[in-house]
Amino acid sequence: MGKSKSQKKKTAVLDSDEDDNSSVSSTSTMRSDKMSVLGTEEVQINKDSLLDLALDALYEKRPAIREKALSSIIDTFNSSLQHEFVEKKCTTLLHQCVNIVKRGTSKEIALASHAIGLLALTAGDGDKAHEIFKESVSPISQALKSGSEPTKISSLLECLAVVTFVGGNDTEETEMSMQIMWQVVHPKLSSNVVATKPSAAVITAVVSAWSFLLTTMTGLKLNPKHWQESISYLSSLLDKDDRSVRIAAGEALALIFEIGSVEKFSGEVKGSIDVSTPEGSKNREGFSRVQGLKGKIINKVRDLSAEAGGKGSAKKDLNSQRNLFRDILEFFEDGYSPENTVKIGGESLKTSSWYQMIQLNFLKRFLGGGFIKHMQENEFLQDVFGFTPKKKHLLDDEYRISSTDKRMYKSPNSVVSKARTQLLNKQRMLSEGRNAGHYAANAGDEDF
Question: Start and end of every Interferon-related developmental regulator N-terminal domain (predicted)?
């Protein structure tokens, strides 16, 4: 006789290692049986049940099963917004992922980090996102110190950037995350520890994540020395052999000069510096140094915008670099930020500043194939970019939300994210002139 659907659920095979049952408890074995449907096409199962099965499988002892479960969770969160699941089981999924970040393999850590970031983006601005941020920061910081595998490190950095972007409540929390990122390339070392030179992939990930968080910060008045040091470090990266490093550094430098006028890096506007006082003399010196750095950066940017390429250079990558640095050169010389348009479901999402472009590109990379879905249905991201999608008349089988969620989406008083408030304020600041307001970041050898 043929097997029923319920029987098939119990017999489809996720993992062929059946000899390992002796090391697994009866409860774990039951979970393993339920998880057997993952990765097979024998059984039709809705996404809610699949997520429940995947969550159960995170308790498994075998890394291979946990990896498949995490991949399934990531795919599901990418393909549809799981508001009801997050409402009911956010803390459970978060704690399991955090435990994997603490003790898992490099591959598991990379997957769990991505899952935590998706959890935060789905939760949106509010208490849940802040809980995700608070529970994640310390384990991520420790994991960043416990190895140098580029994929793991990059995933941890992306996760830290996303949970801070969504769940960080103030500039102090954002600065803390930026400092953790900075220490990946400039670690605090004890006397018996030798520094490990970070790979190009890790440097690129650090600069990209740091820049992404820098886009959210306004009104900081830190020591201008830190600005000068951040610019000095990033400008040195323009000489690196790796093209991805040069591109990330170029974007970061353009962002810094967009959101903080050069004159105010030195503490005072040029015309108001009183050189007769010790403080005024220091400010004059700082102003002159930053101006000198900018001149060197512009010369290097000009060279990179016309680079001929070298043996084995991928033409696509070379063209991307040239186009980017042409935009940077135009910005430095004429003050024009690049304008870009992305089509999403028939609507246009437009960016007209470096900070918007950096945010958009970072989130596109993080969400991958789920970017369009999230932009169409994720209210938090819509708030960040001021994007209004075309209204959907019918919900497909893959996306069903509760009546409470439907009311939330329709309500004109739905929660407006912190990010939107910050970014709209900065848009106003930028439109009023580049010399309006201080903007700084911590960038010394100990703090970035």
Answer: 25-333
For residue 86, what are the contacts with CB-CB under 8 A and spacing of at least 6? Answer: 119, 122, 123, 128
CA count, 13 A, side-chain hemisphere, 46: 9
Rounded CA separation 138/146 (Å): 13
Per the structure, the count of domains in the chain is: 1
CA distances to 4, 79, 101 from 140, in Å: 44, 26, 7
Could you give the CA distance from residue 448 to residue 223 in angstroms, rounded to a whole number?
Answer: 12
Rounded distance between C-alpha atoms, residue 168 and residue 419, angstroms: 10
Q: How many CB atoms lie within 10 A of CB 189?
A: 10
Residue 373 lies in a domain: yes
Taking alpha carbons only, the member of 409, 235, 241, 419 closest to residue 332 is: 235
The half-sphere exposure of 264 on its side-chain side, counting CA atoms within 13 A, is 18
Q: Measure the CA–CA gap between 235 and 233, rounded to whole angstroms.
A: 5
- Round to whole Å and give the CA distance between 89 and 80: 16
Question: DSSP labels for 296-359?
Answer: HHHHHHHHHHT----TT--HHHHHHHHHHHHHHHHHHHH-PPP-EEEEETTEEEEE-SHHHHHH
The answer to whether residue 174 sits within a structural domain is no
For residue 155, what are its two tokens?
């995933």
Residue 10 three-state SS: helix
Q: For residue 205, what are the CA distances in angstroms to 114, 171, 172, 372, 429?
A: 14, 21, 22, 23, 29
In sequence order, which residues have a C-beta less than 8 Å from that of residue 246 and are 6 or more positions away? Answer: 237, 238, 240, 304, 321
Q: Is residue 317 part of a domain?
A: yes
Q: Give CA separation, 373 vs 22, 77, 88, 369, 407, in Å.
A: 43, 10, 22, 8, 20
Task: Count the Cβ atoms, other than its own, within 10 Å of residue 393.
Answer: 5
Which residues of the chain register pLDDT less than 70?
Answer: 1-48, 188-195, 218-228, 261-287, 290, 308-316, 391-448
Give the residue carrying structure tokens 């040029």.
270
Per-residue three-class SS string for 111-157: HHHHHHHHHHHHHCCCHHHHHHHHHHHHHHHHHHCCCCCHHHHHHHH
DSSP output for 263-274: HHHTTS-GGG--
Phi-psi region of 416 (alpha: psi -120 to 50; beta: other; left: phi over 0): beta
Q: Are 138 and 392 in contact (CB under 8 A)?
A: no
Residue span of the structural domain in which 443 resides: 215-389+412-448
Please report whether residue 234 resides in a domain. yes
Helix (H) / strand (E) element for 102: namely: helix 83-103
